[in-house]
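User: Please check C-alpha cell order:
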Amino acid sequence: MKFPSADDDTGSRLFDHLIELRSRLLRAVAGLLLLFVALLPFANRLYSILAQPLLDKLPKGGQLIATEVASPFFAPLKLAFFVAVVVAMPWLLYQLWAFVAPGLYKRERKLALPLLGSALVLFYTGCAFAYFVVLPAVFTFLNKVTPQGVTMMTDIAAYLDFVLIIFLAFGASFELPVALVILVLLGWVTPKQLSESRGYAVVGIFVLAAVITPPDVVSQMLLALPMVLLYEAGIIASRAVRPATKPDVSLE
C-alpha cells in the first residue's frame, strides 16, 4: 500500500493555489472587460468631460484638434479603458484580497483591509484633486504665458496622455501615508525616524514633484504641498498602527 508523501501533498496544494489564482484572474479580467464594454457608448462624452478644464481656459473659439486620422477614434477608446480600470479597482483589489486573505494571520487581515480601503480613497482623492484643482490652475498659467500671436491648439491624443500622466502622478503620490504605514509595519523604519527625517523628506518631495509634473511651478507646488501634509498624516497613522513593543528587562 502506498501512502501519500509530503511532496504529493505540497504539489496538490500548489495546484489548488494555481487553480484559485486562475479563477481570480479570470473574474478580475471579466469584470474589467464588462465595465469597459459598458463605457464604450459614452467614450466621446467622457472625453468631452476630460477636455473641459482646458476648453474653459482657452480663448474664445479655442478647441482641440486631431493631427492624426485615427485619433478621434482611439483617444476616447483609450480614455474609456482607463476609466474602466479606475472604476473597477475595488473589484480588482477584492479578487486579490480573496486570493491572499486565507494565508494571512488575523492581525494581518485586520490591518490589510483598512490599508486597501485607504489606498483606494487616497488614489481617487488624488485624481479628483488633479481634475478639479491642478488642471484648471495649470491651464490658466499656460494660457497666460502663451506668447502673443500664438494660438493654443492641442492635439487630442497629446492632451489625453498629458492628463493621464497627471492623474497617475497625483493618484500615486497621494498613497504616501499608506506607504509610510507599510514601511513601519514591516519594521524598516520607525515613526521617530520618519519624524526626524522630515527635512530630508520635504526636500525629496519637492524634487520628486519637479520630476514627475509638467515643467511649470504651479503643478509642482500643487503636488509638493499636499504631499508634505500627507507625509505628516503618514507619521500620525504609523504611530497609531505600530506594533506595541515590550520594554527591555535587564536581569541583575
User: Anything to note?
Assistant: Residues 134 and 219 are 6 Å apart (CA to CA). DSSP finds ten helices and no strands in the chain.
